[in-house]
Amino acid sequence: MNNLHEILAPAGSPDALKAAVLCGADAVYLGVKELNARRGAENFDYTDLDESVKFCHSRGVKVYLTLNTVISDGEIKTASKIIERACASGIDALILQDFAAAEIAKRCAPSMPIHASTQMSVQTLDGIIKLADMGFSRAVLPREMSKSEIEFLCKNSPIELEMFIHGALCMCVSGQCYMSAVLGSRSGNRGACAQPCRLPFSAQGTGRFDLSLKDLSLADYLKELCDMGIASFKIEGRMKRPEYVAAAVTACKQAVKGAVDPEIKQDLQSIFSRTGFTDGYYQSKLGKDMFGTRRKEDVVSAAPILSRLETLYQKEAPRFPVEFYFTAVNNEPVSLSAKCGELSAFCKSDFIPRQAINKPLDEASVKEQLSKTGGTQFYAKSIQCEIHSGLNVPVSVINKLRRDAFDSLESSMIHGQNKPFEQREIIISPHKSQKPKIICRFKNEDSVPDDLTGVDEIILPINSIKTRFDATAQLPRGIFGKSNELLTKLTELKQKGIANAFAGTLDGIEIAKKAGLCVTAGYGTNIFNSVSLEGYKALGVSKALLSPELTVNQIKALGGDLPRGVFAYGKLPLMLTRNCPVKNVKSCGECKQTGTLTDRKNTVFTVDCSSGMSEILNSRPVYMADRLSEIKNADFLLLYFTDESKQQAENIIKQYLNGGKPQGEFTRGLLYRGVE
Rg of the Cα trace of the chain? Predict the structure, then answer.
């Protein structure tokens, strides 16, 4: 695995890109106006993109394009166009979330490297190995990983690993958050997150901000991470101003070399933080010290340092050494050759030297002019001269040769970095569904009704299966360092008769397959289009649960032959978090899995910790028993029971079999209103 130690900076705007490059970033990541996970940033139009790539490449800086959202069937052509323009611009790699975007890139632009976004939720070696098999050359790790987990992956990964080392921390594992979508139709998986987690959500109604984490900062550990083998150190912040980018890049460049200047470290906290920084996940020190909010004093502290930070990117820093050879001889045009690494340039002037009347040209004068490289990315490493005696060459001629040589070298750096793109249409046949089967997920065996008439399959969390070996084993979406433990458990269950698994991440799918089980792609896989359905079919899954963010009309239009299902009943899991918010108030022993969160409108959300991580459930269940005729093109309906009693579950099943009006509070989820 290539060990780059690359500083990868956010570029939410052309100004932020300039700040990143001039402060020494090795690579930047950016998005165009559509289909990127920071749609609220200024972003780049195609003209900006072309110019920005040229600017970066002429300074040896790579550019990665974020196409890191889920995409609908109606956006497949847009995604293809973005990839085509990325190839034409010379983008160095694509950062992707959706299987469909990966399929387009592999078909139409096989020479374009693809990186797996952290939005793909890949946490384990099994998942990373599968990413490599799918053609990904790099994986972006989740922010929630510990030092030991990162170290293990670095030692064993077949592809490069990238990790966030500074910037905002989402409470939820990336790619597993539906809170913004469900509460306001602004999907984090679609780049439109409204950040509801920064609002008051208090454990046990205490009025706290128990979903708001401090910002991440691992600058003090970059040398350690270099030794582990992390290829790229990523700074979060495409919504941030250029001064933030400048300070973060400067701090990280210093950290890789040794230690961060205390003044820069303080500037970094002043320009943006939420009551300071945290390294809690990395150090495996979870708890209330990781939580923080953006206070008034945090905002006020930024103002005095903005102008000072702006000076960090006002001047071009010389990057490339150049070897010059200057020639001024009798009866021949003055010339200059320049060598920069493997690149070279030869420039010839129209001027033929004349005999000097006063002071003839000498080597010292030539060296003085050729050393004036300020304002460019070059500097003179060596200067050799061949000058016949008694000749005169105007300074303007020497200066023009220097400028022409730099222009030629810069053009050589930019030239030939575009990648071929061949449009290849993906044709998927319409789907033919049967009468939808009823599949029920229960919290544990004790909550399974005695009467399961009409139920085709039951799902139970893997750790709750004691005697029901006819059940499908639900794998946790948060696996991280527990792959071997999970594989052992699945193998034991298979020996007892368990044949099927329900897995919501690529990690879980691969582990279940390794155990020899038939796998359903479950909640959390974010299947949003027909091409992704085909991608999961290629993975070997038997059926797939569609994204809960799809509307009934979008579901109806999906093609392909992989059986697919709809989340038709239950409290949607809104967040999956490794840091339990209830622990800010009371211990696990005191909570006994009865934790809740209350928002500013006094709505109460259950916190379910039975999977080994904390899942925040919606306050009311999706209910569709009275409108099942409107769900078309689905092969199964998932009834997802969490805190219902056996009798309640039995009644609801009967309603889905026979039709029935909802009782109590309910929601239609996103089946009609959809997401931005």
Answer: 29
Rounded Cα–Cα distance for residues 37 and 170 (Å): 13
Domain boundaries, given as residue ranges, for the chain: 6-169+213-313, 320-414
**Residue in the block written with tokens 């080994």:** 612
Mean residue pLDDT of the chain comes to 95
Integer angstrom CA distances of residue 456 from 452, 499, 524, 532, 645: 8, 14, 22, 25, 20
| pLDDT exceeds cutoff 80 at 2 | no
pLDDT digits (tens, 9 = 90+) for 200-223: 999 977 778 999 999 999 999 999
> CA angle at residue 551 from 545 to 555, to 5 degrees?
55
Which of 564, 574, 659 is closest to 621 using CA atoms? 574
Helix (H, G, I), strand (E, B) or coil at 312: helix
CA separation for the pair 154, 648 (Å, rounded): 48
pLDDT tens sequence across 565-621: 999 999 999 999 999 999 999 899 888 888 999 999 999 999 999 999 999 999 999
644 burial level (CB within 10 Å; 0-12, 13-18, 19+): buried
Whether 249 shows a pLDDT value over 60: the answer reads yes
What is the distance, to the nearest Å, from the Cα of residue 312 to the centroid of all Cα atoms in its chain? 27
Q: Among 195, 191, 183, 152, which Cα is nearest to 72's?
A: 191
CA gap 73, 557 in Å, rounded: 8
pLDDT at 1 over 60: no
Closest to 113 in 3D by CA, of 127, 141, 134: 134
Per-residue pLDDT reduced to its tens digit, 464-473: 999 999 999 9
- How far from each other are the two terminal CA atoms of the chain, in whole angstroms? 38
- Give me the sign of the Cα torsion angle 562, 193, 282, 4: positive
The span from the CA of 185 to the CA of 550, in Å, is 11
| DSSP letters for 493-512 | HHHTT--EEEESSHHHHHHH
Query: Over the stretch 286-317, which tens digit does the pLDDT of each residue have?
Result: 999 999 998 888 888 888 899 889 999 999 98
CA pair distance 44, 64, nearest whole angstrom? 13
Helix/strand number for the chain, H first, E second: 20, 30
Can you tell me which residue has the tokens 């890139």?
105
Sequence-separated (6 or more) residues with CB below 8 Å from residue 424: 107, 108
pTM given for the model: 0.95
CATH of 6-169+213-313, picked from 3.20.20.70, 2.60.40.2310, 3.30.930.10, 3.40.50.1820, is 3.20.20.70
The per-residue pLDDT for 3 is 53
Least confident of 99-108, 161-170, 258-267: 258-267
